[in-house]
């Protein structure tokens, strides 16, 4: 394996996943992953540009940033690329009026969107709001459309909370895809458009950027397909899945 | 198209789907589909053997039969092939102890099954019990197993109730399959084993039997793959999907 310096040569910008990389979400706001608060501070002091690239779709950016700042992170709302605002742009561009199958915590991101007489469904990580009734309503809306459009904020299978693994939006998107015989459009990682918008916002080319995440598909694979470099941390869902015994993250090794 | 007499030559037994064919389930027990009570009575008076082959997994056979008898159908519990008892046989044969993600209405079918320290998950049409919490629990049980086994009572996408189309177990099975990266074992139509057990119980060979259902995949395709003939009625989900204007069923045409 090449040395860190060599592998990261020419890097000008760092994209950081949030959940499972900076912190584990959960009751009471979640807990930071050891070393990550300091790592973000160190990155911010470095010559590198930093941006946070998350598939978080249960909370608004404002709520998420407030929570992270409370945990000690140096982060502001303008530094976050998240799927809900990206979806709003798409809805506006295409004249789509969504039925929202989302968590109440992210609803404010859609405040400016016309949701009357829906001609599509937007599904996000709705958590407890993934009741049978809510899923069935979204299903019925789609079945009544001549050209059903389902926009999914991510395709994650699950994420890690402090209490354990939790089903993510991707599982419920699969359910609606199967029931309706359709294919969802994904807004969020690993969609290339999503990574590209994050790079644009950071003002860095793909070959000059590295994505740091815990998801081999959504973070690492997606970023690499866009021409970026990628690092998978051994925290978050990686840790659970690989069933690692040693509690350790890559954070301590990354010195930029 | 060949005449009915010709197409049904040599038929000795009839397998009837229930939901969407005999009746539409729903609030207050559901409503019979016009002509079906009389059609069942006529079949029972004929020289043909009759068996009911359903993927109903929200109600026990006892409950289902009670409901149908109340609506006027000549039907007894011993005439019904349903996935829950078929699943119980499999669980016993393989020493599996299920975590049950099922509707309370069908739980009695599993009364004799050991559910301690689960080593598999059984998923059925749980209806309102498909809460996020219950889905997540089933997901966590599967993720903790070295060899996760998911047994699904059917693979239906949706069914028709009097109030409209309803998400069926297949959608939720897809969600768990995707989240866990596994493939479910299906007990129920269109599984060949399920059709074969119905034929055995009826004492009729596949080439001597006709399946009557409203689902082109679960009923018609599945039966045909087993060497049976099949008729698709234009009621139940067929009607909704094809968006037929004329309210009419094949029942009036089938004279056996």
TrEMBL record, chains A, B:
Homology family: Belongs to the HAD-like hydrolase superfamily.
Primary localisation category: cytoplasm
Record has Magnesium as a keyword: yes
Cofactor(s), by name: Mg(2+)
Molecular functions (GO terms): inorganic diphosphate phosphatase activity; metal ion binding; phosphatase activity
Reactions this protein catalyses: diphosphate + H2O = 2 phosphate + H(+)
CDD domains with a match to the protein in the record: HAD_PPase (cd07509)
Enzyme class: hydrolase
InterPro entries hit by this protein: HAD-like_sf, HAD-SF_hydro_IA, HAD-SF_hydro_IIA, HAD_sf, LHPP/HDHD2
Keyword line: Cytoplasm, Hydrolase, Magnesium, Metal-binding, Nucleus
Localization, UniProt: Cytoplasm; Nucleus
Protein name, UniProt field: Phospholysine phosphohistidine inorganic pyrophosphate phosphatase
Cited Pfam families: Hydrolase_6, Hydrolase_like
Function comment: Phosphatase that hydrolyzes imidodiphosphate, 3-phosphohistidine and 6-phospholysine. Has broad substrate specificity and can also hydrolyze inorganic diphosphate, but with lower efficiency.
Gene: LHPP
PANTHER family to which the protein is assigned, alphabetical: 4-NITROPHENYLPHOSPHATASE-RELATED (PTHR19288), PHOSPHOLYSINE PHOSPHOHISTIDINE INORGANIC PYROPHOSPHATE PHOSPHATASE (PTHR19288:SF44)
EC number of this enzyme: 3.6.1.1
UniProt source species: Pteropus vampyrus
Organismal lineage: Eukaryota, Metazoa, Chordata, Craniata, Vertebrata
GO cellular component: cytosol; nucleus
